[in-house]
Design brief:
The chain has one domain. Helices cover about 50% and strands about 0% of the residues. The protein is built from 5 helices and no strands. The longest helix has 22 residues. The N and C termini lie far apart (about 30 Å).
């Protein structure tokens, strides 16, 4: 008999970890990597809200594509993740939960110029003037996660 595989994914824990590390980096004048981690923290936080809203997850804990949805579903990065939230809203099984917590994050548009590819860019090419906006939006995501945890959803 084989042992059950432990679930390796926790969007909530990873959101918190990346957000904390982004703050540490920002305090150390490492804006480029702080900005990257603010975006990743917010993505993880949104995905935690989606899991709380009963979006299907795979056996490893990662988000599955909702039934009947083509493409990556919610397995996206900014800014495509924000678009997926709009385009696939009807595919969220518990739309009420999703709407409740996503409504606490009015500034997701701040990630419109955040790209996962920034991790490869030259320092001088990074949009560092956006880091404060990314931090503000990620802070809203963390507050929504705190509320969902307090409400017993996470």
């Amino acid at each position: 008999m084989s042992a059950a595989r432990p679930v390796l994914v926790s969007y909530f824990e990873s959101a918190r970890r990346h957000f904390h590390d982004a703050g540490v980096l920002l305090g150390g004048s490492r804006s480029a990597n702080a900005g990257q981690l603010f975006g990743i923290a917010a993505e993880c936080g949104i995905k935690a809200i989606l899991v709380a809203s009963r979006v299907p997850v795979g056996t490893d804990g990662s988000l599955d594509r909702p039934p009947g949805v083509k493409g990556k579903g919610f397995k996206e990065h900014w800014p495509q993740l924000r678009q997926a939230l709009t385009d696939l809203a009807a595919a969220i099984p518990d739309g009420r939960t999703a709407t409740t917590y996503l409504s606490l994050i009015p500034n997701l548009t701040h990630f419109s110029d955040w790209l996962i590819e920034h991790r490869y860019w030259r320092d001088g090419a990074l949009p560092l003037t956006s880091v404060a906006r990314w931090q503000a939006a990620a802070t809203e995501v963390m507050a929504a996660l705190d509320q969902a945890k307090e409400d017993g959803r996470l």
